Hints:
By secondary structure, this protein is α/β, with parallel strands linked by helices. The chain has 2 domains: 1-53, no CATH class; 54-278, 2-enoyl-CoA Hydratase, Chain A, domain 1 (Alpha-Beta Complex), CATH 3.90.226. The protein has 11 helices and 9 strands. The protein has a 7-stranded mixed beta sheet with strand order 3-4-5-6-7-8-9. Strands 1-2 form a two-stranded antiparallel ribbon. Strand 7 (195-203), helix 8 and strand 8 (217-220) form a beta-alpha-beta unit.
Amino acid sequence: MRHRPTVNAWHGHFEPKRVPEGVWMRCDGCQATLFRKQVEENLNVCPECNHHFVVSAVDRIAQLLDPDTFEEWFPDLRPGDPLGFNDRRPYPDRVHAEQERTGLNEAAVVGQGFIKGIRLVFGLTDSSFIMGSMGSVVGEKLTRAMEEATRQQLPLVIVSGSGGGARMHEGILSLMQMAKVSAALARHHAAGGLFISVLTNPTMGGVAASFASLGDIILAEPKALIGFAGPKVIAQTVRVQLPNGFQTSEFLLEHGFLDRIVHRRDLRSMLAQLIGYFTP
Length: 280
């Protein structure tokens, strides 16, 4: 009696071709399955629903500044461990792991560059490094960049992408950075300097409560989460139903917190236009 071939017997003849890992991705906004290369070519914006994906510091610099014009400042600053902090691992080990994983030395990158031929001081925070939380090095880098912008009479642009507030691993030394960067911005403003703050998803905690909210002009990307405490924390604390879209760019624009919402493809041109309008 002959037996029909089993599934395993035929399996080798009909092995389906495997799609390389990472070719496709899912949109967090519309849940569509997207071709990753197409999304990257679209500045990491979903071609279906215009959802703006989080981008790295390196990608943000490439998107906004003229090619090969960015000069990083203070790259060798490293955080200390003033508290000997240890949760699941010692704080220095955590920092080292984040540096290895992200290729960044800290959650902030600052320096000078050009946008359409206009020289400026440029800074940004990256949420991939301990959620972009503001430790002593982040505050020091931003403060020094602000002081250089004041000294050289250059416009200042900072792109915020921080889901964390003050970095608990550094205690009060982290918390005091909010006051330090705010004081540096006050001096920049008193000297007649221009500061444009760009808020991206997410901009929360101590970053939102300090320099990110102090721009002469405040721009934001569409549907960015912007606020101090997260909406779930607020809802659980005050025990009320929050308005629809609470803490989004659109909600904050409607309530006067922002000057304009700008699509990522238009941000570079918008920054160049604004700097041209407001600087001699």
